[in-house]
Structures are given as structure tokens and as C-alpha cells.
Amino acid sequence: MMTPEQQRITAFAAERFGPKAVTTDPHDIEPWLIDWRRRYQGAAPAILSPGSTEEVSALVALANDLGVALVPQGGNTGMVGGAIPPADGSALLVSTRRMHRIRRMDADANLAVAEAGVILGTFREAAEAAGRRFPLDLGARGSATIGGLVSTNAGGVQVLRFGTMRALVAGVEAVLPDGSVHDGLSALKKDNRGYDLNQLLVGAEGTLGIVTAATLRLVPAAAARAVAWVGLESPAKALSLLRRLQAATDMVESFEIMPDDTVALVLAHVPGTRLPLAGTHRWHVLIEAVTSDPAAEAPATVLERMLAEAFEAGLAEDAVIAASEAQAESFWRIRHAISEAERSAGPAVQHDISVPVEDMPRFMVEGGAEAEARFPGTHAIAYGHLGDGNVHFHVRAPKGVDRNRWYAEDAPHITRLVHDMVVAAGGSISAEHGIGQMKRDELARLSTPARMAALRAIKTALDPKLILNPGKLVALAPETLSK
Amino acid sequence: MMTPEQQRITAFAAERFGPKAVTTDPHDIEPWLIDWRRRYQGAAPAILSPGSTEEVSALVALANDLGVALVPQGGNTGMVGGAIPPADGSALLVSTRRMHRIRRMDADANLAVAEAGVILGTFREAAEAAGRRFPLDLGARGSATIGGLVSTNAGGVQVLRFGTMRALVAGVEAVLPDGSVHDGLSALKKDNRGYDLNQLLVGAEGTLGIVTAATLRLVPAAAARAVAWVGLESPAKALSLLRRLQAATDMVESFEIMPDDTVALVLAHVPGTRLPLAGTHRWHVLIEAVTSDPAAEAPATVLERMLAEAFEAGLAEDAVIAASEAQAESFWRIRHAISEAERSAGPAVQHDISVPVEDMPRFMVEGGAEAEARFPGTHAIAYGHLGDGNVHFHVRAPKGVDRNRWYAEDAPHITRLVHDMVVAAGGSISAEHGIGQMKRDELARLSTPARMAALRAIKTALDPKLILNPGKLVALAPETLSK
């Protein structure tokens, strides 16, 4: 059921932009109303798919006039329900799927301009075809879109060297809540004209504007890479190893840590996986080193030397460097299969958190012990991007619990404890997945009043009618929410 | 003459923070009421110098209650009048001079926390003493403060490799207009908790908050450097040379271009300067290459090889690599003495502009010709940071003009032309100096309505009483200005 205002917008889109721009068949809409982890179910009477920035602009201007909420959506690969519309059907979905042009690919300048609907995998391939590399990668590369990656400041497994999406965005084009277009695509290395609207839109989760295109930085193509698997005793030793590597070379692009029982879970549940090392180790680290310089010392040689020094220093227990691309991929497969393995191991509550890098080893050990002590029978594990101070901190349910009861009753308390520990450590309750609807109220609970007041002031100043992605990210004051 | 409200704040500061926190003697105040280039003269009945973040917070909260304007000031080295109070004496100056602690220097983490009043030169030395390097440098290093550098997103001669201040800021602590404290010092590599307030405060020129401290990134200490002087034919060839260098090595930290007549001006006016090359060249380039890796190929060897290739390719006409530190400094002295030489050469109107790097060679040549054609007798020169797309574009007055008349009548028209050309090229009318009061109205004239509306909305949302650095950066709508 559409409201008369929603009908007007839908009719406007159909008439002005053509039939491709409007989807109203419930069967076609349905897959876009639920997130891929099936945690958030929304409703929407239509998906609008404008084909250009001008069309997005016209659509948003009309929606603003009529006070109709819009929820922007890219590949629908989000982890926090940020692209799922409200359950009451009050919002229309705006898909960027028809805006999939790469407008510019400038290898000399190491820059490219991609529209919001360009798929990450497609973009990475285009950069490679141009002899360059786009150094951001994540599991959802086949579906995630540039617009979504910008709007969520996406991270992934290559952040260590090149940073998150924020560091890779040189410019943003977006339609603001009143329908006006912010054109920040011109990639200026120096530009001091006041508040940085491009950076404000990165990670704003579509609440301040609909990102329609972005200018993205490219890096030189990889000339050689090496992947190593290291067994070691503790996260503290892992961090010491990382610091040594980073002091000696800038080649390290990934440094992923996993506890032994998590690796064992993968080996038990995921066919075709095999432990790279023969012995037993409490912690495992996956390292990837890359160079773009064909004349540079080979990454494998660098890692070999550095790991030999790490044995001498008592930091590493054992290590192996992949002898082939296939072997390198098999190492990575273990890391990437953790989520899959975890699902088959029973209920778990997951947290995407960060703390200052130096504090992460302590947090992984003490935080895990604290969670297990406070919730007897649970099992805490932490794995992920040690060098970014970002681990995925999961707490598994005690064996034999009722799944639904545990998720409904215990999980929220566990999450509260983990978030409190993170805040006490000066960390973030959302390292890379964003806030969306999942963490909106936790953000409000755990932010300082100064911070929440600033977020609310910015949101309501730029989107006074609250039409863009309502209910996400910023918990508004009660009086504003009820508007 | 103080208003009763100003008196209350001054008395509060004296009583709560002690006599050091208040300066009311006009002789002591006077030097801080005019910028160092003596273009902007303000007035203020007192300078308040809080000694801690808590004191700044108490001060701002009271000023906000009473509706008294505050102008934050660091080293008073700004180029656009951004730290000079209004001429009507309606604002109090807030100096960060007593907040000069380096709170943390963590070489392992490559991070440091410095208070707003720490002098750049002092901070650079502290980083060096810790075996690291802070890769931002500019002429005013002996006076410019961390707070000012953050608030103006300072640039300088090392931006090419490590970026502007924005890229070097890992966290910001600031007092917001209502007196609340934004504590963003925790340096998280991944943090997706909504709008990035740290980045919003960088370059906000004190209009959204008073920066009290910052977490800054350090880089490895330099193991070796090389400085080269190259004579070449055109900016286009200079850019081709830069692209070659950048494709081959990441050592290039500075790439400064200067036209021949500007270099000649330095040689004529600045004692002790001497041209590094014997022949005549239309353009000169100063290159600095640095490595932190003692085992890497020496920067001088890399430059030597690359410059030899550049001769072969017809890009460079002649070049010399400094044989000693003293010689390297003498090359740099020519570049740094340009402002001084220009002042002795008569009136000139200066523009700190940027365009996309690829377009800069064309802009330097065609923009200069256009300005000279439209204003007969003038002489346009452009020099500076070619690799950042940022040149200082100066137009010298015709010989024999009346200085005051020319500045008052012709200069504004020239500036308007230059700014229009910059905007047409998708560039910025303020590359590194900021907006302040100098460019406030030009920013309003040349920004899209969407951009100005966003800047105004953010300013008025976060500082509804308009107490922080009024009249700077954002030209408010007439009805708000008259408040």
C-alpha cells in the first residue's frame, strides 16, 4: 500500500525516467527488504532506480517536498541493517543499480571516478586492466557497490597499508537531502575551502546524502606478493612481530590473527581446508606482503629473513611461506572461512570492535576471559585485523542452550558487556561495519553527550525533514524521532 | 573598553585560572591584533590564555551563556586573517600559548599527542629525538602551533608524499561551542561510529570548536636524502618528469617548480644566493628524495639515474644533485626566499590556488597569459608545489603604478579573474592558506548554493549563538549575520 505521496513519487519516476526506474512487483522487491544475514526485515512499496545523478536529484527534491522517506541501497551486503527500510513501509528504496558507469580511469594520475552502483569486483578488475590496483577488498566484492563502500567507510583485509575507504576517497558526488548536488569529484590534493563535505559523507550511511559517484585513489599494480602462515604464542608476540615487520618494510598489507580453536573449527567444518603448519600453536597469523617494484627484494625473501629473526627473538614458533599462488590462496581460505565455520558451530554473538593497536593484545586476552567469567559456559574468541586494532570479537553460546532464548535473553547482555569494555579501552563499538539500525541505540548509550549532540545537530541541520535513511545511525532526541 | 559580559568572563578567568591566564595591558595585546603580513587589524580588550582543556571548556561554556564571541589564536602566522579578532572589539582572544605539553610520544605506535600550543619546530624536534619524523614543515615552523596547523589543515613543502595536516591527524580533542569537550584523541585505525567529527574540525578555522590537542602520525626517521635542481622547458615537462619519478620510487617528498624570472629575482635581491646551474632555463624544479631505509638504494643514486633517463627522453635540460647538506640547503634557500624577493620587487597580488594536478601545467601557462592580457603591464608568475596541483599564482603590478591605488582598484579585479579561472578548472581558491576573512566572500560567491547551504547549516547547527571565530570562513546569510 502506497501513500498518495509515495504514489506521486513513483509515478513521477516512471514517467520521467522510464519503466526501468520503478519496481513495484512484491516478488521483485522482496529480496531487497531483508539483509543477507536475515536479521533485519523491512517493507517498501517500491524500489526506485534512477539512472543518473540528475534523476537522483529530481527524486530527492520531490521526496523532500512531500516529506517522503528514502532509503538508499547498493548491493545490500551490509552487516548492521543500514540499507533495510523501516518495517512500516513508510520509505521508498532507492537503488543505485542503474548507475554503474566507470566515468574515468586515469592510470597516470592514479585516480578513477566510479558511479555509486559499480560493483567492487568490477572496479578492481577495471583498475587492473589499466595497470593499477584498487587496494580495498572484502568478501562481498561480487555484490558490494562503490556507493555503499563509501557510505559505510568500508574496511576489509587490506587496510593495514592503504587505509579504509576514507583514505581511498579523493572526492564524492552526492545528492543532498534537499535534492541539490554536492559535486566534490575534482580530486584536489590541497583544498582548504572550509568543512570537508566529502569526508563528512564518507561513513554517513546515507543519512546526509545519497552518494552518486566517487573519485577513488589507485595504487601501482602488484609486482610480487608473498603469503606466510605463522604459529605463535600470544597476541602480544604477534604485535611485536608486526612492529618489527613494519619498521623494516612497508610491504605488509595484511596481518590477520586467529586463535587455535577457531582455526580448528574451520578445519573441522570446511571441506578442503588443511593446516599449513604441522605442530600445535595457540595463535596463528596470516601475513601478506606485496611490492609494486619489480626491482625490489622479493617479498618472500623479506618475509623469510624477518621470520628467521622472529624465531631468534622468540616471537614466532613456526612459520611457512606459501610456495605457490594456490598455496597462498589455501592459506587465505582458512581466514575467509571462519564465518562459515562459526555458523555451523552453533549460536554466537558477534562484535566488530576496535581499540588502539597497542592495547589489542591485552584486550583480546583479558576481554575474552572477562566475558567467559561473566557468562559461564560461553566461549569467547577474537580474530581479525590485528594491525588495525580491529578484531571480530565473538562469544559462542554454551553447549545445548535454546538458540532463540539465548539470542533474545543472554546475547544483549553479552554485547553490552563487550561494548562497555571497548569504551573503557578508548575503542570503537563499530570498527568497520558501521552503526545502521543494529548499533544505533548502543551508540547513543555509549557516546559522550557532546558527541551525540554534534551528530544530531549535523543530521537535523542538513536533513531537517529527516527524509534520508530515517532511523539509522543517529538516535534522534525523542521529540525529533516522533516528528 | 569591555562590555559587562566580557568583564565577567575576564574576571572569571583571572579568579579561576590565575593571573597568567589574563592579559589586558594594551601594549601586551597589540602584537596579537594584527597578522604578520600586516593586512588585518583587529581589536580585543583581553587575551585569555587557559592552561588546560578543562579551562578552555569552562571559558567557552561561560562565553556561550553570555553570548560573547571568542577568537582562538595560536602562533598568529596565518595568511588570511583567520586568527585576527573583529575590529569592533566585540570578541575576546583565546590564546593556546599556555597549552604546550607533548602529552605522549610513542615511537612504536608512530603516534604523538600534542597540545594546541605546541610549536611546530619544537614538535618536530621531539619526534626526531624519539627516532621518528613529523613530515610537515613550513616557513613559520618557529611560531606556528599544532592547534593552528590542525585548524587550517596546513600544507607546506612535504605534502607530496605524506599529505596535508588532515592526513597526519589521527585524532582531535576540541572544545565545542557549548563548552562540551570532544575527545577524539584515541587513535583508532578503524572507527565507523558515524560522522567523522575529527575530520570536520580539521580545517574548520576555529569556527566549530577550539582544538585543544591532537594525535599526530609520525613516520620513520630519514636515513638519507638527496636534493636536485633541474632546468627544464615547461611545466608540462616538469609534470612528466614527476610522474616518471613517482612511478619508479616513493622517495619523492618535494617537487617545487619556479619560473626563470622568479629565480632571477631571488638571485638579484637576496644576498648569498647563487644559481645551481650554469645555463639558462625557462623553468626550474627543486626535487627532494628521502628514504628511511638505510639498506635502500641511495636517494642520490636513484635521482641520478632517473634524471639521466629524463635527459634521454627530452624532459630535462640540465640538472645537478647537491653534493653536501650545505649545498642542499642553498638550493632550498632559493625556493624559500621567493616571498622575500618578491616583496622587494614591488606590489603584487597573490593567490594560493589549486587545480587537478594534470591540469596545472596548462593552467600555469594559459592562466598567466590571460591575466597579463586582461591587465596590461602586469606580470604573472606561478611557482610552488606542482605535485600537489598547488601553485602560488602572483600577479605583479605594472612598473611605476601608484601602490595604494593599484591594491585598492586593480588587485581585486585581478583576484576575481584568477578565482574565476580556478573555478572553471575545477580547482580551489584556497589550496593551503584557508579562507579566514580574506576569502570569505569569494568563497560565498564561487561555491555552489548546495555547498554554501551545507557550510551554513553545519556552522549554525553546531554554534547557534555564533560565538566561535565570528566572521571567518562561512559568510552567513544576511539575516543571520545581523544577529
TrEMBL record, chains A, B:
Name the record gives this protein: FAD/FMN-containing dehydrogenase
Pfam families the record matches: FAD-oxidase_C, FAD_binding_4
Family according to the record: Belongs to the FAD-binding oxidoreductase/transferase type 4 family.
Domain FAD-binding PCMH-type: 40-221
Keyword Flavoprotein: yes
Listed Gene3D superfamilies: 3.30.465.10, 3.30.70.2190, 3.30.70.2740, Uridine Diphospho-n-acetylenolpyruvylglucosamine Reductase, domain 2 (3.30.43.10), Vanillyl-alcohol Oxidase, Chain A, domain 4 (1.10.45.10)
Molecular function terms from GO: catalytic activity; FAD binding
Domain of life: Bacteria
GO terms, biological process: respiratory electron transport chain
Cofactor(s) the protein needs: FAD
Species of the source: Sphingomonas trueperi
InterPro entries reported for this sequence: FAD-bd_oxidored_4_C (IPR004113), FAD-bd_PCMH (IPR016166), FAD-bd_PCMH-like_sf (IPR036318), FAD-bd_PCMH_sub1 (IPR016167), FAD-bd_PCMH_sub2 (IPR016169), FAD-linked_Oxase-like_C (IPR016164), FAD-oxidored/transferase_4 (IPR051264), Oxid_FAD_bind_N (IPR006094)
Alphabetical keyword list: FAD, Flavoprotein
